[in-house]
Amino acid sequence: MENDTRRRALDRFQTGVYVLTSRNGDHFGAATVAWAMQTSFKPSLIVVALGRKSNVFRCLEHSRVAVLHVAGHRQLGLARRFACPTETAGTRINGEPFVNGVTSAPVLKVFPAYLECQVEQIVDTIGDHALVILRVVLAQCRARFRPMTIAELRTDLERHPLPPRREPAPAQVPLRAPSPPPASCSQSAAAD
């Protein structure tokens, strides 16, 4: 009973719905995320909680770049599509066209706003997700829109559950040691 009560209480936390993309060479990762927030004005920093086994985490861990796309309230289908494993074909991720951003991370054309970012720091936690601190290097807001909330996505998923999740293919991202963080990361970490 306590777990059910805890789940219901935690479900009351309200956040937006985002799609995070990254790439490591020819390997891509994309995922719907809700645990994201701004953590600093100067410099512009955001933090995102990501499962360590996800393709998007493995890509950004190596490439140190990512794009956080803001989903509009009428984009439930897109949010659902990126809650499934990443599939790429040419210049499409999960069926949606992308262009390379200034960081080389994939920018999905369909979302009304996005933030291109560089990884500042990855914080390991005792939980099943790592915290990724991202520095915003470019922001675009291409339309006026109302952002989607996690409550809207949860309601949709309760009515129409996703198919069972399959494990990401281990060959999606080559195994190699992550790149060392840029010098500014070490300085930032030491200052905190």
Describe the structure.
By secondary structure, this protein is of the alpha+beta class. The chain has a single domain (2-191), classed as Roll (Pnp Oxidase, Chain A), CATH 2.30.110.10. The protein contains five helices and eleven strands; from the N terminus they run H-E-E-E-E-H-E-H-E-E-E-E-E-E-H-H. It has helices at residues 2-10, 55-63, 76-81, 150-159, 183-191, and strands spanning 18-24, 27-33, 36-40, 45-51, 65-70, 88-89, 92-93, 96-100, 106-108, 113-123, 129-141. It has a seven-stranded antiparallel sheet with strand order 2-1-5-10-11-4-3. It has a four-stranded antiparallel sheet with strand order 6-7-8-9, with no helix packed on it. Strand 7 and strand 8 form a beta hairpin. The longest helix is centred in the C-terminal third of the chain and has 10 residues, at 150-159. It is globular and about 45 Å long. The protein starts with a helix and ends with a helix. Residues 170-192 have low confidence and may be disordered.
